[in-house]
Amino acid sequence: MVEASPDRKQNFSRLCTISGVGPVVGTALVNTLERVPVKSADAFVAFTGLDPRPDDSGQHRGKRRLSKRGPAELRRLLYLAAMSAAKTKTWRPLYEHYRVKGLSSTATFVILARRIARTAWSIYTYKTDFDPARLTNPLT
User: Fold this and answer.
1) Which one of 46, 109, 125, 131 has the fewest beta carbons within 10 angstroms of its own beta carbon?
2) For the chain, give me the number of helices (H) and strands (E)?
3) Would residue 41 be called left, alpha or beta, if left means φ above 0 and alpha means ψ between -120 and 50 degrees?
4) pTM of the model
5) Is 19 exposed, middle or buried (0-12, 13-18, 19+ CB in 10 A)?
6) Is the Cβ–Cβ distance between 14 and 127 less than 8 Å?
7) Contacts 24+ apart (CB under 8 A), 68-75
8) Are 50 and 58 in contact (CB under 8 A)?
9) Which portions of the chain are predicted below pLDDT 70?
10) Across the chain, what does the average pLDDT equal?
11) In sequence order, what are the residues at sequence separation of 6 or more whose Cβ sits closer than 8 angstroms to the Cβ of residue 126?
């Protein structure tokens, strides 16, 4: 399907420049971003179900959990991409930063998956290549 269209193939190759995103995740991202028009990176993250769902009522402020709305397979692929990305020199400092803060490895992988989703939306929307220098510094 990716090979059928030159535009789709170009978008696929751009998305595969993200560390941790391979052919399977890249294909899923191209397919989703092409079929589901979203206006912002936040909307794309919410579509994937990687956004926090509040559990508040009155004075009670409950625990935030993933909303898990949207395609489970895309969420799974983004999580696996985050696991792979955490081993690269680009994403490793971010992973270690959140682990030192006391977050579990699962929570840290979800954070990385959200960042990968936001980055993928930006690359797809603005037709740019992945630039590791543009990742914001989490250490502030």
Assistant:
1) 131
2) 6, 4
3) alpha
4) 0.91
5) buried
6) yes
7) 70/46, 71/32, 73/28, 74/28, 74/29, 74/32, 74/48, 75/48, 75/49, 75/50, 75/113
8) no
9) 136-140
10) 93
11) none
